């Protein structure tokens, strides 16, 4: 279970948005965030190793009948056991998917998503002038939307999906999103307010990063961002992320697949783009941040780089794509 939570919180930053972070959705301890993530990564690696070891254990035959000796792929390892070991990554994801079908687990995840949404959308709720009843209803609409996105993300991480099955999953999400769009537009009853919500949602990955670590990086350095500066930085980060690139935008769950992280070449492209984006963000941010704030931004970007690398490593291990 800890592996599932760690996967979501880290991969949300690398592959964006599979679930808007289960661990990340808790009010974070900013000062210890990187150390906490390192601990979660070690716990996840240990659990993944256990799953792989379990897959290698001999399985008794269903019917005790005479049969030919199984083919050997190595000393003491049968062909069947080797196949099971190769599929351990898929088993890991499958077990997480099954776990997420548990109503109690889904209720807990929704509660955590609600906390994350409260932090990420607090200023929007204020800007829209919502009263408590309106705010509660709006939060439910957004939480339901996030849950549908999370479900799609988990499903798309299945190694065994065909192209047709993947398309069916994304098409179903598109239908759910269209229904959600209509419900939110009707609730807001103002096209300008709806466009404001759309902008907020389109910059969701950057707002999650700011909620998790960004604000604290500046506050701990004694140079907190003003609301206007934070909005400028969020918009700048989103603009850089959305620029045309040969590397898929991994904040879009539709771009998530085991193949996306299967090759070292793609991993190299992902990390290289992250470094290029960081440089471009610093160049643009110099126009509205002080020198002291620029120093804090560099430290924050270094923390994000470490989190991204951990997310990539753990996701590859979960999906059986690591090379150990």
- Order of strands in the sheet with the most strands? 1-2
**Discrete helix count:** 12
Tally of domains: 1
Query: Could you give the distance between the termini?
Result: 23 Å
Q: Rounded to an integer, what's the Rg over CA atoms?
A: 22 Å
Order of helix and strand elements from N to C terminus: HHEEHHHHHHHHHH
- Helix and strand content put the structural class at mainly alpha
Estimate the helix proportion, in percent: over 70%
Low-pLDDT regions: 1-31, 62-89
Number of strands: 2
Report mean pLDDT, rounded to a whole number.
Answer: 74
Give structural notes.
With 324 residues, the chain is an all-alpha fold. It has one domain. The protein is built from twelve helices and two strands, in the order ααββαααααααααα. The protein has a two-stranded antiparallel ribbon. α1 packs across α2, α9 crosses α10 and α9 crosses α12. The longest helix has 28 residues. It is globular, with a radius of gyration of 22 Å.
Task: Give the structure's gist in a few sentences.
The protein is an all-alpha fold and 324 residues long.
Features:
324 residues, mainly alpha, two-stranded antiparallel sheet, 71% helix, disordered N terminus
């Amino acid at each position: 279970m800890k592996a599932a939570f760690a996967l979501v919180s880290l991969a949300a930053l690398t592959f964006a948005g599979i679930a808007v972070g289960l661990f990340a959705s808790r009010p974070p301890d900013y000062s210890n965030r990187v150390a906490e993530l390192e601990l979660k990564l070690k716990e996840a690696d240990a659990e993944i190793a256990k799953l792989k070891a379990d897959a290698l254990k001999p399985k008794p035959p269903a019917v005790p009948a005479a049969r030919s000796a199984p083919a050997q792929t190595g000393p003491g390892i049968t062909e069947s056991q080797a196949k099971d070991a190769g599929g351990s990554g898929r088993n890991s994801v499958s077990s997480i998917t099954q776990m997420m079908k548990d109503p109690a687990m889904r209720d807990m995840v929704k509660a955590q998503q609600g906390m994350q949404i409260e932090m990420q959308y607090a200023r929007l709720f204020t800007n829209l002038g919502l009263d408590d009843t309106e705010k509660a209803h709006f939060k439910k609409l957004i939480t339901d939307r996030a849950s549908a996105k999370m479900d799609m993300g988990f499903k798309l991480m299945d190694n065994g999906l065909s192209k047709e099955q993947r398309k069916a999953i994304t098409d179903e999400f598109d239908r759910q999103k269209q229904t959600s769009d209509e419900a939110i537009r009707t609730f807001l009853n103002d096209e300008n307010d709806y466009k404001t919500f759309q902008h907020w949602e389109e910059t969701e990955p950057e707002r999650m990063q700011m909620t998790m670590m960004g604000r604290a990086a500046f506050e701990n350095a004694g140079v907190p961002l003003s609301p206007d500066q934070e909005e400028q930085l969020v918009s700048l980060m989103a603009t850089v992320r959305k620029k045309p690139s040969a590397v898929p935008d991994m904040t879009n769950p539709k771009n998530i697949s085991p193949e996306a992280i299967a090759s070292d070449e793609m991993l190299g492209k992902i990390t290289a783009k992250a470094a290029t984006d960081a440089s471009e963000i610093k160049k643009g941010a110099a126009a509205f941040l002080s020198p002291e704030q620029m120093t804090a931004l560099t430290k924050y970007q270094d923390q994000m780089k470490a989190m991204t690398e951990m997310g990539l490593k753990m996701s590859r291990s979960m999906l059986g794509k690591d090379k150990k």
